[in-house]
Amino acid sequence: MLPPVGVQAVAFTHDSVKVSWADNSVPKNQKTSEVRFYTVRWRTSYSTNAKYKSADTTALSHTVTGLKPNTMYEFTVMVTKGRRSSTWSMTAHATTYEAAPTSAPKDLTVINREGKPRAVIISWQPPLEANGKITGE
């Protein structure tokens, strides 16, 4: 069987990506009575040790949810008909949108400046999950 082609991944939100593809083994404009399903698998792109997650669908697209913000993912698709399956498709990549940090800065420290009664030095540690680039303080 031929794997799905033209796989595209487009970020929808900070935690979802829509993956779509074409199946060249189904003639265009022709209904097929064959039951076939597609398996979409994904993992983060930054780690080759990351485990794949997957979902099955009978449609030519699937929206993957529950992803981490500001993270690049890779997606591949396979078609299965009966006991036969294709190889995995070419890989498509998408990066989820940024989101607000999941917590406030921590370990806030305030130090008086010696000889300057109206000045202090404030320091802190960034949130555990920044969910993107922190641009304001």
TrEMBL record:
PROSITE patterns the UniProt entry points to: FN3
InterPro entries: FN3_dom (IPR003961), FN3_sf (IPR036116), Ig-like_fold (IPR013783)
Domain spans labelled Fibronectin type-III: 3-99, 104-137
Top-level taxonomic group: Eukaryota
Pfam families noted in UniProt: fn3
Name used for this protein in its record: Fibronectin type-III domain-containing protein
